[in-house]
Design goal:
This protein is α/β, with parallel strands linked by helices and 377 residues long. It has a single domain (2-11, 39-370), classed as TIM Barrel. Helices cover 42% and strands 10% of the residues. It has helices at residues 2-10, 18-21, 29-34, 51-58, 82-95, 126-130, 134-150, 173-176, 185-201, 234-246, 273-283, 298-301, 306-316, 333-346, 352-371; strands spanning 37-40, 63-65, 102-104, 106-108, 111-112, 155-156, 207-211, 252-255, 259-260, 264-268, 290-292, 321-323. The strands form 4 sheets. It has a 5-stranded parallel sheet with strand order 6-3-2-1-12. Strands 7-8-11 form a 3-stranded parallel sheet, covered by helices on one side. Strands 4-5 form a two-stranded antiparallel sheet. It is globular, with a radius of gyration of 19 Å. The two termini are 14 Å apart.
């Protein structure tokens, strides 16, 4: 835990001006908007005519997420082998206008994009890790983080810190997939912090998910509305986030699409200002980067237009808008996301100051990542 506190103490102070954070000062508005967008694409290499290439070059796309499997074609997508993946990540960095996050979902157990068949070590599930010690969890995450770093991955959408809140015979969805460390909020937090520390020591940014908690959810946000109103427990579900914010969490926090009536009725947390700015930032004290869960999940896409989702997420306080572009393939998704947000800024619906605030938070984390030495973040 001391290492996490040192990370916090070393972080760039919140009030430093833009020019102290970036040698060239603030970039153009387009590049600041682009820094708020992460999108997936197809291909084990970046094709010469792929629109993602131009968007990265121009800074209108800030970050990418990689998948091993394409949901539509059922074939491989971005990952074939360690060597191929390193070539791809090197190319992404070479064409990008600025440093970028290259992300995967590598939790362990059932949720892993980098598998033994690709040349990567197998990692146990969160449930299995939760039955051991936090120190053992840290060591496992450190080893995995080193593999990610070697392959050019610098952001892992893990660990899950949802607390298993199963009641009765019906097991919650995320617990049934063994993605929870356990039922004890304190123990879940200790394992998640240890997991994050292991990744950070390897120079990989971790991401706590899925705020405000999916540990009691029986529905899948990929498929439709997920409502945790009846089973949400503020003390239980928010405890790990409170502990992480107080301990100097070295990464991001992902906000889920769960609807929680105790926070805001009928609106997903990812699009809720009371959830993000009110609870996560205000009550719990998290001042770092917030990323949405995939905004193409049906919990959002079935009920909100792209413009509504982008507007509400940014107004809520989300810094990075994630479009996996795998649940539903759209070759123009990254461009549409950028032009939507740019149009909202041009119309005065989203103030430019709001874009700058997110850019600053993202830039601080990228700066720490770029300066990371042998001891990690």
């Amino acid at each position: 835990m001391l290492r996490l506190l040192l990370v916090l103490a070393a972080a760039v102070p919140l009030l430093l001006p833009c020019r102290a954070l970036c040698a060239g000062g603030k970039p153009s508005l387009d590049r600041m908007i682009g820094s708020m967008i992460m999108c997936g694409f197809r291909g084990a290499e970046l094709a010469k005519d792929d629109p993602v290439r131009l968007l990265l070059q121009e800074g209108r796309l800030g970050h990418v997420i990689l998948f091993d499997r394409d949901m539509a074609t059922k074939g491989s997508r971005n990952v074939v082998s360690k060597a191929q993946l390193k070539r791809l990540t090197d190319e992404l960095r070479a064409v990008a206008a600025r440093p970028l996050f290259i992300a995967v979902d590598q939790e362990g157990g059932r949720v892993a994009r980098l598998l033994p068949r690709h040349g990567f070590a197998s990692l146990p599930s969160a449930k299995a890790m939760g039955q051991g010690t936090p120190e053992a969890t840290r060591r496992l995450a450190l080893g995995m983080g080193r593999e990610l770093k070697e392959a050019g991955i610098n952001l892992d959408f893990a660990p899950v810190v949802d607390v298993d809140a199963t009641k009765g015979p019906r097991v919650s969805l995320i617990a049934s997939q063994e993605r929870c460390f356990g039922r004890d909020p304190e123990l879940a937090a200790r394992h998640a912090l240890a997991f994050g520390e292991g990744l950070a020591q390897a120079g990989v940014v971790p991401c706590l998910k899925h705020f405000p908690g999916l540990g009691c959810a029986s529905a899948d946000s990929h498929l439709g509305r997920t409502d945790v109103t009846a089973c949400f427990d503020k003390a239980r579900d928010l405890a790990p986030y409170r502990k992480a914010a107080a301990s100097g969490w070295p990464g991001m926090v992902m906000v889920s699409h769960a609807v929680c009536g105790a926070i805001e009725p009928d609106r997903p947390a990812s699009l809720s200002k009371p959830a993000v700015d009110g609870i996560l930032r205000g009550q719990l004290g998290w001042q770092g980067v917030v990323v949405s869960d995939d905004l193409q999940m049906r919990a959002v896409a079935d009920h909100y237009s792209l413009e509504e989702a982008v507007r509400l997420a940014v107004d809520a306080g989300v810094d990075i808008l994630l479009f996996g572009n795998n649940l539903h393939w759209d070759p123009g998704m990254a461009e549409r996301a950028f032009t939507t947000l740019r149009r909202l800024v041009d119309a005065g619906v989203v103030p430019q100051a709001r874009i700058e605030a997110s850019w600053l938070r993202i830039q601080r984390l990228l700066n720490r990542l770029e300066k990371a030495g042998p001891a990690g973040l």
